[in-house]
Each structure stands twice: as C-alpha cells, then as structure tokens.
Write a structure and sequence with these properties.
Layout (H helix, E strand, L loop, with lengths): L2 H16 L18 E3 L6 H7 L4 H7 L13 E3 L14 E3 L6 H8 L3 H7 L13 E3 L2 H12 L29 E5 L10 E5 L3 E3 L4 E7 L7 E6 L4 E8 L1 E2 L6 E2 L4 E4 L5 E8 L2 E3 L7
Antiparallel strand pairs: 1-2, 3-4, 5-6, 6-14, 7-13, 8-9, 8-12, 9-10, 10-14, 11-13, 14-15
Helix pairs in contact: 5-6
C-alpha cells in the first residue's frame, strides 16, 4: 500500500468517526446531604443552633425533649430532624410533663410558686416527675395552696426556686441599631436574610427591649454575634461586631449599648419572626 493510499484510508476512518457522536450518559444527581444532628459546642445556646439551621427554637426544643429553660450542655447531641413532632396536648389548667422537665422548670414556665404546685399535685420532696405525667395548674387550687403555704413558713421551699418567667414588652418600638446607610437590602431569594448597614458610629444599640439569648462567635459567617429575644415570636441579630458588651441572660432596654463595630463600621442586622427572616425595614424607624 502506497503512502497516498494509506493517507486516504486514514482520512476515511476519521470522517466516519466524526459522524457518530459520543454517547452521553445521563446520571441522576446525588441526593442532597442533610445534616441530621448537631453536637453542642462550648458557648452555644439553643437559639444560636436554631438560627444556624433556620429552625424554630420551640420546635427544636420539642424534638429534643427539652423543657422551656432550653438548657443544653457541651458535647450533647441534638437531633435536627423535626418531622412531625408529637405535640404536647394538655387540657386547660394542665401540663403534660416532657422528658427532662422538673417541677421547678414547670413552675418557672407558668409563673407559679413551686410550693403551691407541689401541694396541689400531692408531691413530696424531691418532687420526682416522669414523662407523660399530668400536672394540674388549676388557679383556684393554686391560690388556696399558696394561702396555706403562707401559714407554714417553716415548710417553705427557698425563694430562689420560685423563678419568674421572662416578661416581654407588648408594644415594641423598633429603632435603628446604628445610624448609617443600607448598602445591602433584604433579599431572601439571594440568601440575604437581613440588611447590611455602613455606619460612622462604633456603638451598636439594641433595636428593641428584650433578653440576650446568644453572645459569641460560634456561628460561621456571622463573626461576633448577638441575638436578642424580644417576644415569643421575635428575635433580632447583630453580626460582625468587634467587641461584645452584653452576656447571655442579660436584659437590655431600648437603645442600650450592646456592642462595638470594627474600623469598617459595617453591621449585619436581622429580624426573625416565628423562625423566619423578615425585612427589618418594615420594623425599624
């Protein structure tokens, strides 16, 4: 075979191959990886964990059988699968005990005296409870028990155990945490769940009165962060701070100083209602 013939033969092979497109293999996309558990780290609170995973804190607590104190400990593993948690259905003036609850936490939740609650439910010290147990909260019986208890001071439970539940303002007046210019608007479609404010001020103020439920730097992307609870439904967050001036459990009033900004004067501000991000500009004035 001559060189010319060999060259023509090779060209025919190449042309023939070009008319047969390569096979395209269609593969299903792998399923999304869903984080199902979270191990509590030092400094975290249930509020910060719920914030990280965009969950409602009360549902997260219920899924993990936590009482209203929301107490968690480092190393504890929390489930993040809420599913359809079994709701606690109680008749009026009753409380169904959840795993981990104590008589003291129930008294705190419903703002009643521990001693009266123990008397009405015929409980003796150390007031052991079990999940599913029904605790009566009948107001008339509690008032009678409280009156009886006042006549027997020697049998009283120490006052430190009569914890009152947090009280929140019913008429919130929202104000700007800092004076400045909004340089990034609220746009959840672009994963912008809050607003960015450029300010010449270094001091950040509470936008409304409430209780500090998180203060730390454990949430990736938020820097030094403060979360304030303003009601059973409303939370606000102040991120990318230089210094934090408040601690978890501290009560703050409107315009109290809570943090300091860095030299860039940039703050990220969020408001969440019932666990969902809302536009802060509809609240602050």
């Amino acid at each position: 075979m001559t060189n010319v013939t060999l060259l023509l033969f090779l060209l025919l092979i190449i042309v023939g191959c070009s008319t047969s497109p390569a096979l395209v293999v269609h593969r299903d996309q792998p399923p999304n990886i869903r984080i199902k558990t979270h191990q509590v780290e030092v400094g975290e609170t249930l509020y910060s964990i719920a914030w990280r995973y965009d969950l409602k804190v009360d549902m997260l607590a219920q899924a993990n059988s936590l009482d209203r104190s929301y107490l968690i400990t480092p190393g504890q593993t929390l489930t993040l699968i809420l599913g359809n948690p079994k709701s606690r259905v109680s008749a009026p003036n009753q409380h169904t005990v959840l795993k981990g609850e104590t008589l003291f936490s129930i008294a705190s939740e419903h703002a009643v005296e521990v001693q009266s609650l123990a008397r009405v439910n015929n409980l003796d010290s150390p007031f052991l409870l079990y999940p599913g147990q029904i605790i009566t909260l009948d107001i008339n019986k509690l008032n009678i028990a409280q009156t009886d208890a006042s006549k027997a001071p020697n049998n009283r439970i120490p006052a430190r155990q009569n914890i009152k539940k947090s009280v929140y303002s019913k008429n919130l007046q929202w104000k700007w945490p800092v004076k400045g210019e909004v340089i990034e608007d609220f746009n959840p479609d672009k994963l912008q769940k809050g607003i960015k404010i450029k300010s010449s001020d270094s001091i950040v103020h509470a936008a409304a009165p409430g209780n500090v439920v998180y203060a730390g730097s454990g949430l990736r992307g938020y820097g030094k962060l403060i979360i304030i609870k303003h009601s059973d439904m409303l939370l606000s967050a102040y991120a990318n701070n230089e210094d934090l001036l408040v601690e978890v459990g501290q009560t703050v009033k409107h315009k109290d100083e809570i943090s300091k900004l860095g030299v860039d004067g940039m703050i990220y501000f969020e408001i969440r209602k019932d666990g969902d991000p809302v536009n802060p500009l509809k609240y602050i004035k």
